[in-house]
Amino acid sequence: MKKILLPALGVLLAAGAAQAQNTKPAAGGQATDPNHAQTTQGTGINQVGNSIPAAAYYEGGQQAMYDFIAKEIKYPLLAKRNRMQGRCIVSFTLNTDGTMQGIKLVKGVGGGTGEEALRVVRLLKFKKPEYPILTSLPIDFKLGVTGANALEN
User: Fold this and answer.
1) Which ranges in the chain belong to alpha helices (H)?
2) Residue 2 in 3-state DSSP?
3) Is the pTM above the cut of 0.70?
4) Is 74 exposed, middle or buried (CB count within 10 Å of its CB: 0-12, 13-18, 19+)?
């Protein structure tokens, strides 16, 4: 009888844990929504619902920063040919004089997308923050969108 109850209890506990994960509120008290991020049509860049700390120091804010990235980014030909898409994450420290240091690729997709993300992040110009900020910037590469990143350069 113990052999029958233990597996059944394990199944019930696993089901309860899965249910708790799906309904657990986020740290801010709101339920997490996997579809919360919005993709700007034509840019291939996913704009995260929460503000990126360094975006407050970009002239025009987060929207202007992503508009600049969308204008400058070029989808790497190798990634396009191999249908590679996904999110690259670039990390850097924004210094008190507005310069960036320690720019590195935290996560790449391959096919030259990481190198392209690094190139575009290096072009960003920030205002001077009061203190150094360690931050990361997500840049999405999506196929099938129109805009500057659809060009084969």
Assistant:
1) 2-23, 61-72, 77-81, 113-123
2) helix
3) no
4) middle
Helix (H, G, I), strand (E, B) or coil at 82: coil
Q: Under a CB-based contact definition with an 8 Å cutoff, are residues 23 and 93 in contact?
A: no
- Give the contacts of 117 (CB within 8 A, at least 6 positions apart): 73, 88, 90, 105, 108, 139
Cβ–Cβ < 8 Å for 25, 31: yes
Question: How is residue 98 annotated by DSSP?
Answer: S
CB atoms inside a 10 Å sphere around CB 128:
11
Helices 61-72 and 113-123 cross at an angle (nearest 10°) of 130
Using alpha carbons, select from 50, 72, 71, 73 the residue that is nearest to residue 62.
50
81-100 tens-digit pLDDT = 999 999 999 999 999 999 99
Distance from C-alpha of 94 to C-alpha of 125, rounded to nearest angstrom = 10
